[in-house]
Amino acid sequence: MNETIYLLYILSFILGSLLGLVLSYRKYKAPYAIGKLDVVAVVLAVIGWVLALNSALITFIPEYITITIGVFLLAMVLGMRPGYGRNETFIGIIIAGIIWIVRMVIL
Amino acid sequence: MANILLNVLIAFLVGSVLFGLQRKIMARIQMRPGPPVIQHLLHTLKFFIKESSFPKTAAMPFYIAITAMLCVIWVSAVIVGPVTEGSLLLIFAIYAIHKIVEHNAGSSSGSPYGKLSCVRAVFSASAEVPLFAVLIIIYFKTGTMVISNIINFQATNGPLIYSIPLAAAMFFVLILSKAPYSPFAITKGKDIISGYETEHFGLLRGYLMMSESIAWYMLLWVFLTVFIGGLSPLWYLVGMVCLSVIVAFINATTPILSPNHSIMMQVSFAIVGIVGSLVLLLY
């Protein structure tokens, strides 16, 4: 069971990356995004990383489903075409990390 | 059976993503954007839908059988490793066969690049196989070759990486030699195009790449299991990512060595590692 869930997360990551790659090639034409932030990507990254790292906060859904959705969303941003998605991912990690630290200290 | 399929699928997917991560990190170090992390996986899958063609100079049916053999041996490694936690000697045998497959894949294609790679495979085997002397050191330390017993030994005595660090370093050099673009990757140096894979197209290339991804996962799995102990899937993943990142740093900053230098350096590591570990075991 443990390994099946592990496989689920990996598949979620790969499918998310694939979707992110395809959509980002459709959305962006320039090879680099210098100094620009994509709001949609930021939202996806924040939700994804928060769900993946802080799944314990959401009690009404089984943990593995929350993490699978989170991994899918964070992979969509992480897997965007080269030159995109990096800053958005960092913002997602920082916000999710802060929530994780606050949760560990308070709870 | 389901457990075997599950573990093989995990090994293939994780191995492919780790190869992609390695290329991405190397690219970033070299100030390039680099390919997406799943590029290696997509590249592998692409070959399964490409047309397969066979060189006129290929030694049939050996040329085809050798790709299946590479796949079979690394699937066997998954069965011996994560599925049954069997003997390390079998992993050693699988690695030795891997070197033979590299050699024969190159020679059976009839390509001059493949043949050169085939010679280098023999060359590198003479340096990589001594690195597997870590097995003897592990046996001296733990009194067993069975992976499950080694895990139990570490549960009571602490990770082996602390007690036999030189053996761990030797095994790491072995892992490094199997990484693409590594200083020791002489069988696939870009001076000989893609080495033994140069004349394998379509489906056959797909099988080769798939096997290499499983091989990468398995080598990292063996390292983590034997030197750190039985871990949860998440910690295995963290460990594999860390090792791949270290390998990427080394690969990005080190040029590929000439075959002679590569062998000499690996043999030097082996001598220092074996002698040093034996001295550490005695005192």
What does this entry show, briefly?
The complex is a heterodimer of chains A (107) and B (283). By secondary structure, chain A is mainly α. Chain A has helices at 2-27, 39-53, 63-78, 86-106.
3D architecture notes:
Chain A is an all-alpha fold and 107 residues long. Chain A has helices spanning 2-27, 39-53, 63-78, 86-106. Chain A has one domain. The two termini of chain A are 28 Å apart. By secondary structure, chain B is mainly alpha-helical. Chain B has one domain (2-277). Chain B is 75% helix and 0% strand. Chain B has 12 helices and no strands. The longest helix of chain B has 28 residues, at 2-29. The chains are: A mainly alpha (107), B mainly alpha (283).
Write the layout of secondary structure elements.
The complex is a heterodimer of chains A (107) and B (283).
Chain A: H1 2-27, H2 39-53, H3 63-78, H4 86-106
Chain B: H1 2-29, H2 39-48, H3 62-83, H4 88-109, H5 112-131, H6 134-142, H7 147-157, H8 160-163, H9 165-178, H10 202-227, H11 233-253, H12 259-282
Helix pairs in contact in B: 1-2, 1-3, 1-10, 1-11, 2-10, 3-4, 3-10, 4-5, 5-12, 6-12, 9-10, 9-12, 10-11
